[in-house]
Amino acid sequence: MIRPARPDDVPVIHRMIRELAEYEKEPESATATEEDIRTALFGPDAAVYGHVAEHVGEDGEVEPAGIALWFLNFSTWTGKHGVYLEDLYVRPDLRGHGYGLELLRRLAQICAERGYTRLEWSVLDWNTPAIDFYAALGSTPMDEWTVRRLDGDALRALGSRKD
To answer: Which are the catalytic amino acids?
Structure first.
């Protein structure tokens, strides 16, 4: 089952973000705290959304299997919002059960229901299993685009420039 994230999911979401950072070989970059995640998802100015995939074990116990964390983007060309999927993560022991597909399907449904024109995300070049999975869904790589980022000292320097 896929459901919207709830405030009591924050510890699990935070743990899965840390697991994803480990998988992506950048655990030191995942500095968000549980409180940061709680504020982003449920604070007064929340602009991040989340969904949780739940797995029902053989004993009938329900446990979180995966997460999708996303936010709205906007296309000036279409004049419509879209969804940017920041994190899609399924616990390694529960991969192959369709939870990743169901999380993406739910986001696609949200796009269709709300008139959003695209669902976008990034994938690391070396993550062949994910790339193959996404290609099988019909997604297309945006090879002609290069992602750029300002952060840390460069972001502060540009933000404080006076010229």
So the answer is: 134
